[in-house]
UniProtKB/TrEMBL annotation:
Classification via Pfam families: PGM_PMM_I (PF02878), PGM_PMM_II (PF02879), PGM_PMM_III (PF02880)
Family: Belongs to the phosphohexose mutase family.
GO cellular component assignments: cytoplasm; nucleus
Keywords tagged on the record: Carbohydrate metabolism, Cytoplasm, Glucose metabolism, Isomerase, Magnesium, Metal-binding, Phosphoprotein
InterPro entries linked to this entry: A-D-PHexomutase_a/b/a-I (IPR005844), A-D-PHexomutase_a/b/a-I/II/III (IPR016055), A-D-PHexomutase_a/b/a-II (IPR005845), A-D-PHexomutase_a/b/a-III (IPR005846), A-D-PHexomutase_C_sf (IPR036900), A-D-PHexomutase_CS (IPR016066), Alpha-D-phosphohexomutase_SF (IPR005841)
Protein name as it appears in the record: Phosphoglucomutase
GO BP of this protein: glucose metabolic process; purine ribonucleoside salvage
């Protein structure tokens, strides 16, 4: 096929694609674009590559090096396989193998099988789940089977057009630097697909095994052991509570059913239209329970019809958990991730004290990401535990947990505001299955012991540890140069700045009413609160993240998403224990957020689209 795009580099990339790709549909897609002279589209598809980010690879499924497809998956698997062999060159290490799982999206199973063939060709044994699994079952298997790595093919709660490739390292936590960059380098050194990489007959190899039955049995045995037996016996078994559950068209249903069985909780009432995997996600605009009421319409209808007061919902790969509760007026309250983090953090301590009454809490840890509520810090300060803050994302919390466990410490709980919860280090990643089980047990416990709702308990925690109100949302921005411009402007809004640090951030918002005490910029590495002006947490120039600490106690972070075209904001006002003007705190925070969005993000000028819900 003769063509000339006018760019030697693009001509080369087109030729490579046509030579390497054996997926006829994708091959024809690139051929047709070349025939029509769609050089800009081809440039966007072929001159950039998907790179490992917050969650490994994630992108739209279409032909091109900048998307998720057979060829890019094979190249990624080849790079990862070579890097593993470089890190673990001995035959004994190689025999530990890798584990692969997949969700119910289009192409997920195929991407997992193609990856398996790559590892099998390198004589690396493969544990390939034979059916869809919740994401936590991959890191769980890495840990229990002592594998070299794990791969979960999922795009979590992204739109139906997307897919992804999440990688776990030998310690069973998600990859962090330098592994992500080293894997990317190895991919670039192994771009040409081997013939064997397309050969699905390799799946007949005796080095391929299915870990499903073994891991499912072990996972639920360990989950049951993490729920205090007296709580199962006294509160779960005879509870009058009933729970509506949504799998959000994903993989969670059979696992949550089993979780409730092993903790002897009342059987869940599943939303039938969303119970089973459906790659079309046909009943929701976004298959993300983090969106709030708009994603829980069917759940609320079913709960109203069946007289249920509590709704639990996983995202499609079941590593996140949302919860809603009906109040005394019959209105539904959807808890934020921060509110659930406070409840589950307290509950993790209560369960630990029940199981190990003689142990001190001085070696126990609660962990949260830097954009999440500081409520767990307040609980830890009062109750005598330790609290650690990490960068955004469970890859950081998982790896911090590995470090603490290796020092003989006890990690009770970790969470992020994006409804991700790690209840015990059985899985060193967020786990929506175990979180559903523990939250339901907490609800049964509260009903039996004090006739409290989850909302009642949350208010009690605020009384004891101080009221924490949060506000988090986002605006869509589909143009990276606009994002760059927004954050560059924020860094140059002040009256003069510190010449040494090149810091010229705003000093106030709201026409001078809200004074900024400190600024931390994890993109540039600047932190005005540190004596040397340097941030303590790791920095990254590849993403934007600025935190403002205000004199009135509010903390606001602006950051870009690692997986979606969003600018996100997170705001929190932390009151001291005993401070009772909760409505005043909420109103002040609302006003501050409005000022920050209008003055710093300038949504109208920058054509940003606000969150719909």
């Amino acid at each position: 096929m003769e063509f000339d795009s006018g760019s030697a580099e693009l001509n080369q990339r087109i030729a490579e694609w046509l030579r390497w790709d054996k997926n006829e549909k994708n091959l024809e897609e690139i051929r047709e674009l070349a025939r029509r002279g769609e050089w800009k589209v081809l440039g966007d598809r072929l001159l950039q590559r998907l790179t490992f980010g917050t969650a490994g690879l994630r992108g739209v499924m279409q032909a091109g090096f900048n998307a998720m497809n057979d060829l890019v998956v094979i190249q990624s698997a080849q790079g990862l396989a070579k890097y593993l062999l470089q890190c673990y060159p001995s035959e004994e290490d190689r025999s530990r193998g890798v584990v692969l799982g997949y969700d119910g999206r289009y192409n997920s199973k195929r991407f997992a099988e193609l990856s398996a063939c790559v590892f099998l060709h390198e004589n690396i044994p493969v544990w390939l789940y034979s059916r869809t699994v919740a994401t936590p079952f991959v890191p769980f298997a890495v840990l229990e089977l002592k594998c070299l790595a794990g791969i979960m093919v999922t795009a979590s709660h992204n739109p139906k057009e997307d897919n992804g490739y999440k990688v776990y390292w030998t310690n069973s936590a998600q990859i962090i630097p330098p592994h992500d960059k080293n894997i990317q380098t190895s991919i670039m050194e192994n771009l040409e697909p081997l013939e064997s990489s397309w050969n699905l007959e390799l799946l007949l190899s005796d080095k391929l095994n299915d870990p499903y039955d073994q891991m499912v049995e072990l996972y639920f045995r360990k989950l049951a052991a993490n729920v205090p037996q007296p709580f199962i016996r006294d509160y779960n078994t005879a509870s009058p509570l009933r729970f509506v559950y949504s799998a959000m068209h994903g993989v969670g249903y059979p696992f949550v059913v089993k979780a409730f069985e092993c903790a002897r909780l009342p059987a869940i009432i599943a939303v039938p239209e969303q119970r089973d995997p459906d790659p079309e996600f046909r009943t929701v605009k976004f298959p993300n329970p983090e969106e709030g009421k708009s994603s829980l319409v069917l759940s609320m209808q079913l709960a109203n019809e069946t007289g249920c007061d509590v709704i639990l919902a996983n995202d499609p790969d079941a590593d996140r958990l949302a919860c809603a509760e009906k109040d005394a007026k019959g209105e539904w309250r959807v808890f934020s991730g921060n509110e659930l983090g406070a409840l589950l953090g307290w509950w993790a301590i209560r369960c630990y004290r029940e199981q190990y009454p003689e142990r001190s809490l001085s070696d126990c840890y609660l962990i949260a990401s830097t954009v999440s509520s500081k409520m767990c810090r307040s609980i830890a300060n009062v109750d005598g535990l330790n609290f650690i803050e990490t960068l955004t994302g469970f890859k950081w919390m998982g790896n911090k947990s590995v470090e603490l466990l290796s020092q003989g410490k006890t990690v009770l709980f970790a969470f992020e505001e994006a409804i991700g919860f790690m209840f015990s280090p059985t899985v060193l990643d967020k786990d929506g299955v175990s979180a559903a089980c523990h939250l339901a047990t907490l609800a049964c416990y509260l009903r039996a012991t004090s006739n409290q709702s989850l909302a009642d308990k949350l208010n009690e925690l605020y009384d004891i540890y101080g009221f924490h109100c949060t506000s988090a949302s986002y605006h869509f921005c589909y143009e990276p140069p606009v994002i760059e411009r927004i954050f560059k402007r924020i860094r140059n809004m002040g009256p003069g700045g510190d010449a040494q640090q090149d810091a010229n951030y705003p000093q106030t918002v709201g026409a001078g009413r809200f004074k900024i005490a400190d600024v931390r910029d994890l993109t540039t590495g600047y932190d005005s609160s540190q004596p040397d002006g340097r941030a303590v947490l790791p920095t990254s120039k590849s993403s934007q993240m600025i935190t403002f600490s205000f004199e009135n106690g509010a903390v606001v972070t602006l950051r870009t998403s690692g997986t979606e075209p969003k600018i996100k904001y997170y705001a929190e006002m932390c009151a001291q224990p005993g401070q009772r003007d909760w409505n005043g705190s909420k109103a002040t925070l609302r006003e501050m957020v409005d000022c920050i969005v209008e003055e710093l993000l300038q949504p109208k000028e920058n054509n940003l689209t606000p969150r719909s819900d």
